[in-house]
Amino acid sequence: MAELLIAVNPDENSRLPYLMRIPQPGGDLVFRTSGTWPRVKALYCHPVGLDEWPRDAEIVERLALRSCRRSGAAIDVIVERARENRSQLVFTSARGRDAVFWQSPRTRKQARPSVRTPTARAHGLDELQIVVDAHERYAYRFQNQQAGVQQQALPCGDYGVVIDGRLVASVERKSLSDLVGSLTSGRLRYQVADLAALPRASVVVEDRYSQVFKLERVRPALIADGLAEVQVRWPNVPIVFCETRQLAEEWTYRFLAAAYTWATTEDAALQRISSGGADSPVVDDKTPAPGPSSAEVRAWARAAGLPVSDRGRLRPEVWEAWRAAKCADQSW
């Protein structure tokens, strides 16, 4: 069976840490790429010759292919798994040069919101310091906004503003699938209840509200009623639909900037923060950032000569060996 292979790029000076090998009738194609699958954004791929694929390639992902067909300027890829199984390699040009982008249906939908977000500073702040929860996966980087980012554990929400060691505003980020899952499981109610205890908080959704009524595996009316119930019960925590990830990131930046300005200028807000009330939880700045992904530990284990499978969960002894090695060289 044909396979899509992802390996570690042996060139340590390359900004693209992975190699991808994809079979084609005229011969396999090899690309340098920045990730193992296009989950939240399209991945840039640099085509290279087949001779750049190392003989002893350190395989990170081995995906069985159901289909891999070229159609015009794109290669449609379908792998043998239930979720995140479709992607596309698009041959195009960028700034007058040939380029290849690896995208999924989700990244393609969010790539062009048909708007240009502003570059002006929010509320005139030279640089807003945004705290990103240490457990947030695929976090916003705020690279197009005047904001600095630091990672540490937050008591609630995914992105927050901390003043004098206290969390004064927070935003919980949701994709539509995460919103539906957390609402049907009841987890969303606990999350919003925690947010409601803050001076300012919100939930931002990376999709349109109209998409709720296009759901197939759950009754749309059930989700719409659940969202309405949450809003009525906790009216001080708005749920904002922002159409795309890019717009949700921009809205989060503007919301947190406004909350920071409010908290540092209004006397009532300053009194609530300085009083150390329950509505402003203390944030521990010594909380460590999250560890590496399974793919990184799997690659490390292979380099260390440890037997590991190509997919699935890593055994506990592999994680223990990784921690012991990192503690020894004090790099983590």
In words, what does this structure look like?
This protein has 8 helices and 14 strands. It has 332 residues and is of the alpha+beta class. The protein has 3 domains: 109 residues, no CATH class; 153 residues, Rossmann fold; 36 residues, Dihydrolipoamide Transferase. The strands form 2 sheets. An 8-stranded antiparallel beta barrel has the order 1-2-3-4-8-7-6-5. A hairpin with a 2-residue loop joins strand 7 and strand 8. The longest helix has 21 residues. Pfam families: ERCC4, Lsr2_DNA-bd. This is ERCC4-type nuclease. It comes from Mycolicibacterium chubuense (strain NBB4). Keywords: DNA-binding.
The low-confidence parts are none
- Which structural category do the helix and sheet elements fall into? alpha+beta
Supply the number of helical segments: 8
For the terminal residues, how far apart are their CA atoms? 39 Å
Strand count, sense and barrel status of the largest sheet are: 8 strands, antiparallel, barrel
The total domain count is 3
Question: What's the CATH C level of the largest domain?
Answer: Alpha Beta
Q: What share of the residues does DSSP label as strand, in percent?
A: 25-35%
Mean pLDDT: 84
The geometry reads as globular
CATH architecture annotation name of the largest domain: 3-Layer(aba) Sandwich
CATH topology of the largest domain: Rossmann fold
Specify the oligomeric state. single chain
GO biological process, one term: DNA metabolic process
InterPro entries: cNMP-bd_dom, E3-bd_dom_sf, ERCC4_domain, Lsr2_DNA-bd, Restrct_endonuc-II-like
Domain Cyclic nucleotide-binding: 126-217
Region (Disordered): 275-295
